[in-house]
Amino acid sequence: MNSSFLKRRQLLSAALVGSATSLLPSWAVGASSKVILPFAYGERDLLAFPEKKPMIVHGSRPPQLETPFGYFDNQIITPNDEFFVRYHLASIPTSIDPKTYRLKVGGNVKKTLELSLHDIKTQFTSTSVVAVNQCSGNSRGLFEPRVNGGQLANGAMGNATWTGVSLQDILLASNPGLGSKQVTFDGLDAPVIPSNSDFIKALDIDHAMHGEVMIAYQMNGVAIPMLNGYPLKLIVPGYYGTYWVKHLSEINVVDTVFSGYWMEHAYRIPDNDCHCTPPGEKATATVPINKLSIRSFITNPTEGSAVHVNEPTLVRGIAFDSGNGIAQVLLSQDGGESWIETRLGQDLGRYSFRAWQAEITAQQAGPLDLKVRAVSRTGETQPMSARWMSAGYMRNVVESIRLTAV
Question: Mean pLDDT of all residues in the chain?
Fold first, then answer.
């Protein structure tokens, strides 16, 4: 680890310690500005935190930082300093010594493990994947009627190249016993009140043993930023970010279905085909949230922009799904009455953002209602009207922006 990286860690540690003296996020860097998100009571601070550009602040203890949506128009890979931050527990690590850090593997295994970072990097084959990490509640602030929880716009997501080792390889080294049903994952963040539930997630043993689930130590070619899970982060391609445990410290194989709070009570979705309920109603039966819903966005132009009649306008954006792969992205400039197929950008892998672009030409002055809709290789697409659930998860309605032709 180089000296400049250590200095960044030390600066982060000092900034986090300083935050204990103020209710304001004093670990944010520099003066704040304001941003207005596209829903009622949408004013938020825009602040730069350590290792981050100015981000939309939804909370500071623990930090909840949303990526300003304009950042997504710059590139398909989300830079580390633009990547969103989501914690559940307020006691988060402020510095971690890579020399003393250990990952413990135990439970229903024939061989318990206690691995250093050096062990992980030298004893197991490295692998990489480009994958989207999206908060389950991304876009929650856009639900109508409104729902409880963090009122996020569309920026609680990001796409990165993750490098690490296969979870399968580490589990094979520990040799899970007969009857194993699930694998649990715990990180170094903790509840302020010890009696409260620790943030522990679980995957079925077959999923955990699938070669694509990864324990990452790099994000976009460098060590993972502290606020995104340094030094190890669980990567579950195609699944919502609640499973992507940060500061991973303990893995346990269990012979029962794990019943911890964050699996049995939180992050549950209606157990029906649409994972939705009529507005205002709660589901009678639920299951743990799991695979990403297909989504697409327009990143440029932006809401309210003016375009010129009879002049081509380039429209571009991004799309992704749970790993089936994006087959088409369709664009409408008349509110969904007609659609054109867009040109897809480079395919960085089935779990990645996929860029798209198309040209439109307004034939007369007046409003334009642009809509974008993705279609996966298995035929999954986005609903034209928003689905509702009380938790505010999994929004994936066809997105719209309004332009004016002049």
Answer: 93
